[in-house]
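Collaborator request, handled under Task 6.
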Amino acid sequence: MGNSTKDDYVQSICRVILYIEQNYNSELTLDILSKHASFSKYHFHRIFKSIVGESMGEYIRRVRLQSTTLQFKTNQKITQIAMNSGYETNASFSKAFKKHFGITPKEFAKNAKLKRGNKMLEPKIIKLEDIEILYVRKTGEYTKCSIEAWENLINFVGTEYFIRDDVMMFGIGHDNPNITQIDKLRYDACLSWVDKSIQEKGEIQSKIIDGGKYAVFLHKGDYKELINTYDGVSNWIIQSGVELRDLPIIEKYLNKNPITCDKQDLRTEIYIPII
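Structure tokens returned to the collaborator:
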């Protein structure tokens, strides 16, 4: 297979993955997804598994279940969460959830609401405009796959673009490392797309960070300690009773050169999409 053909395959599968993640609560049939990828349905599932590492059905099921975990920190009923994530019945959702996580949705919800962060954080509430981004998706342990994703993205756009004052850096971790297998964790390294002469190619894709209302928390210090701030964020979600939008949490990295920066000087904004 030539490099150009391989890049075409990767681009098509990346588009389908984005479509699944944005429409997981809708009907996702082989016909729909293969047409979106411009592949024959007779070959699509094989190409998908070869590139992603799991079948299309497994991937859709995992995305749907992962999307529910943050909702359990709110006051939504399990039936509503099941419907939001594309399951037709509470029973089918509960069966899939227990098979995937090892406990029932009711037990998970109880545990989620019992957990408390070390302290109550207070965010600033902002309204964000849509942001066009270029991004690279990598999977695996966050501390490792994030480095690979950033290296690939920076090598593609070039250092001069990366250090521009008008270019913003974002990270999107789609999965909770406490409940998702390490090798299945999905991370997107993202840069705002301000120079349209740079075009998508292969694993370098584009999408939009949705605008709207966000609660923004500031994390100070090492990226490895972000999980502690997320505990405080979870506490705030529970205590405030805020309604969450069905979008991923976004991290905005404020330091232009985090590798040479002292760990204590690192600053990260955590964007929680709210209604």
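The cover message to the collaborator said: "The first strand starts at residue 124 and ends at 128. The chain has a mean pLDDT of 87. Please let us know whether this matches your experimental observations."
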